[in-house]
Amino acid sequence: MNDRVDLRFKRRNRTKEHFKSALIELIKEKGYNAISVKDIVNKASYNRSTFYVHYLDKIDLAEDLLNSMMLGLWNSVGKPYTAGQEVHTSKISKPSFNIVSYIDENRDFFELIKYDDTLPGLHTSFPQTILKIYQEKFIFRTINDIPVNMDYFKMYTAYGFYGLIRNWITSDFKESQEEFIEEVIDLTKTHIYSFKYTGN
After folding, report:
1. Strands 138-142, 86-88: parallel, antiparallel or unpaired by DSSP?
2. Smaller CB count within 10 Å for the chain: N or C?
């Protein structure tokens, strides 16, 4: 019985992923506002009745796509660490920036940031999720423990990192993932002595 339920769950998720992929492709082809449910089901090779089993409308699909990708972004950050672990920036390496790997692995989605008529909410949710990660997942120590307004420091650092990420995406991932991470690590060492993962 459990195997049957698990199979249905996997099939349901697979169908939803096909609709999400179709929406991403269509946004790049014609822009979000020009897309109809008919376009989506044709692109995904399903019928309308199957679409409405999973989603109320195009907006519902778009919200599910955005929310699932931002949740994935959030979850990608905690993988290399244990709660309470402090990492000195002199020791950080590629696994410390698993968020970059997540973006690279899902570049089809994150390329949507390059478009004006794109997924609703992406241009705000993407940087806000990065800011929330900095605010809730990490405690930072500045170089020489220089006292600063930490709320401002996290905002400054998070939006700076987002700017680098956005530029990497809009330049069609010109640098390799490894090259990009090395650049970010070098910049991180200029203003952060260490960070502690909160486990959130």
Report:
1. unpaired
2. N
84-102: pLDDT as tens digits: 999 999 988 888 899 999 9
Task: Reduce the DSSP state of residue 130 to 3 states and report it.
Answer: helix
Digit-coded pLDDT (tens) for 11-41: 778 999 999 999 999 999 999 999 999 999 9
Q: Is 141 helix (H, G, I), strand (E, B) or coil?
A: strand
The label of the residue with tokens 């089809």 reads 108
Q: Kindly state the tokens that stand for 92.
A: 């950080």
Is the distance from CB of 159 to CB of 127 less than 8 angstroms?
yes
Its pTM stands at: 0.91
* Short-list 197, 185, 194, CA closest to 161: 185
Q: Tell whether domain 1-55 is in CATH 1.10.10.
A: yes
Instruction: Give the start-to-end residue ranges of the domains of the chain.
Output: 1-55, 63-197
How far, CA to CA in Å, does 152 sit from each of 54, 129, 159?
41, 16, 11
Tell me if 197 sits within 8 A of 82, measured CB to CB: yes
CB atoms within 10 A of CB 200: 13
